[in-house]
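Workshop exercise sheet. Pairs work together: one partner reads the sequence aloud, the other fills in the structure field after running the prediction. Swap roles for the next sheet.
Pair: D.N. / O.F.
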Amino acid sequence: MCRSITPIEHPRDIPLLLEQSNPPPHLHDVIARSGSLSCLDSHQREPGSLLRISLPDLSDDYWAWMRVHWCCRQADYFQLGLDFLDSEQAFRFRLGEQIAQINRYRQQIQCEEGRRLNQEQAAQEWIGKFAAAFPAHPV
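Structure field:
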């Protein structure tokens, strides 16, 4: 098994943008981990490399710089373990993950049950059913 910690598992059907670009200079020396995320990517990534990740279906507020912790080949894709470098970005991105999953839940209920939920109703149901299993934000 590739993983050594329990990350937030990013769902395959929610778009995630991973960009390898030049981060601010101070991030190269950051060692502390502020939580982690696991996701799929079509590219192999070198452990230790820095990526800017974002949730393109949400606002521009939900992004973070992350360090590749591990990368494992899984058939025709790669599973990545990414570490947040900043606790504030980790908190904000975790919130974005929850919003994206609530949006997906809302669409799923519409398709499967024909119920139309507004954002608040969907959030309340999702929280009641799934929030306890969502990885906690590290202190």
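Discussion prompt: The longest helix spans residues 87-113. What would you look at next?
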